[in-house]
Description:
Elements: H1 2-6, H2 8-75, H3 79-86, E1 95-102, E2 107-112, E3 140-148, E4 151-160, H4 163-210, H5 220-233, E5 241-249, H6 252-258, H7 260-277, E6 283-286, E7 291-296, H8 302-317, E8 330-338, H9 345-361, E9 367-369, H10 372-393, E10 399-408, E11 414-424, E12 430-431, H11 433-443, H12 446-466, E13 474-477, H13 480-485, H14 489-500, E14 507-512, H15 514-517, H16 519-531, E15 534-540, H17 547-552, E16 557-560, H18 562-565, H19 572-587, E17 591-595, H20 600-608, E18 613-615, H21 625-634
Parallel strand pairs: 8-9, 11-13, 13-14, 14-15, 15-16, 16-17, 17-18
Antiparallel strand pairs: 1-2, 1-4, 3-4, 5-7, 5-8, 6-7, 10-11, 10-18, 11-12
Amino acid sequence: MKNRARSEAKDAAKDESLQRRQRARLLSLLSTLLALSIAFVLLFAHQFVVGRRVLLEELRAEAAIIAANSSAALVFDDARAGQETVAAIRHTPRILAAALYRADGQLLTMHAESGFIFPVHLAEVPVTPDLPLWFPLAPAMLREPVLHETAQVGTLVLRVDFASLYWRLAEFALGMFGIAAVALALSHRLTGRLRRRIARTEEQLERFALYDQVTGLPNRRLFERELRRMSAAHRPGGPQGALLFLDIDDFKKVNDAHGHAVGDQVLAMIGGRLRAAVRGSDIMARIGGDEFAVILTEVGSPDNAANVALKLIEVLGEPFPTEPVPSHIGVSIGIAMLPDDGDSPGALLRNADMAMYVAKGQGKNGYHFFSSALDGKVRHDLALESGLRRALGAGGEGLWVAYQPKLCARTQRVLGVEALARWRTADGQTVSPAEFIPVAEHSGLIVPLGEWLLDAVCRDIARLRAGGMTMPPVAVNVSALQLLRDPEIVGNFCRTLAGHGEPAEAFEIELTESALTEARGAAALEGFRAAGFALAIDDFGTGYSSLGYLRRFQVGTLKIDQSFVRRLPGHEGDAAIVRAVIQMAEALNIAVVAEGVETRAQADFLAANGCAILQGYLFARPMDAGALAGFLSAHAGAAA
């Protein structure tokens, strides 16, 4: 039972392929038989026409000879001489009887081998057409006028038989059938090897069409067919099934490090491990480059599906034996339950895919179940993406820049401002950056959004300067995805500033720690640094940067993440981290900014421990350019 269940999908594919080949073979045989039948009928008809014409010509010739020899007997009314003449028919099997009639139609003499008696008068002799389109099985009458010096002196009547033609046609038909049988036998024997080769080719094509060539697993086409069958089999109230959508985490690193040939070997090993980790009745498939899927039949409960997901994560967590170093990968799994989470293969795959992206967003190498709330979030994000795309397409309609000042902890002077993107939709609703920034990163809109932000900041600076305002340095956030997706980001930034007449030294680029470790991101950072931009690391302490990266890119500012500031000064652990960051930055001659400062106690603790720059609601909330002008005017005496 287990072996049969394990090969259920493969057997179904083979049965379908066999039925298709049998139908093709039957159709080919019928076509061949039809072609042979048509050829046989045409040849038989040709043989009949030719044989009919020849037979008639022969009978006419014989009748003319007998008639010519009978003219004297009719002229002299000599029955005995006529009898001798017509008796010559005994040498011609096709002529059964012959009779001579006088010019007045009276019978002169006759001869019949079979005892046939001619009527006494010519008028009583049955008339047979001279050239019939067909020949009757019974004998027919053939008339031939007897002439003497161009005058008709009588009539010769022959009773003729067409059996010779029928025997000839029968012999021809038997010969044709024999030739056709021999030809079919030889053709079957000679083409047997070709048919077997075609069958093997069809099997290979079938395998190419339904199975992945790298892993040997079913491909997306076969998987969706089986998923359709399984979703139809799982009805509400019955046993539950589960669909697991697997995406290999960071598989690109394997290809980059070892090449695509080794990458295919690792994919084959992944397929083998996954296949060995599930039951024989479950269906495993590779449905994309580094995407796999599993149908768990009658899994019982979501808890069992979760246990299978954990097992798959565990088996893929073991290193893969690549050279010169083993490869380590993870897997993010989205789970959709059958039949609750979708009534069609498309819906189930879509929902499991949604859940997989949530698992990947939660740190990878984990699993997440699909839910109606998740579906609502995805729909909400799609609506945000559509609205943001329209806003950017309309020149930034509804988008604006908010500025939050950064103040000296000791003197309260304004040392800089951070530019932040804000969005108000057409219906007046304000969308939080925590909502639309991730959507922009996921959809790729982060690149045009970043370009719009820089252009809008330059326009605001120009207006403030036109009003006599001196602007402090402006920090602009750049997403790590923005660095990776826009290979021309440094050049684009420089061209935008040049178009507004702004120097790069007046701007600071804020990035998260993850941007330091990406190869393409690192190249962009070096480009920013070479162009004259100052670099700041945002949310420091939440990533995995090293002192080597800080020194390599000549980072000028570290921003302590507000999650460490929020519980100051009472939380000893956070206080110790903050002190360590400040001391490290001081030793490296790097400025430190504490963001998210909301209470005087936090500000006093940070200042007492050497944090030079503070930013947060305690001093100012993010404000538009007009409010910033007022803020800078109010602090003009202390502005840097």
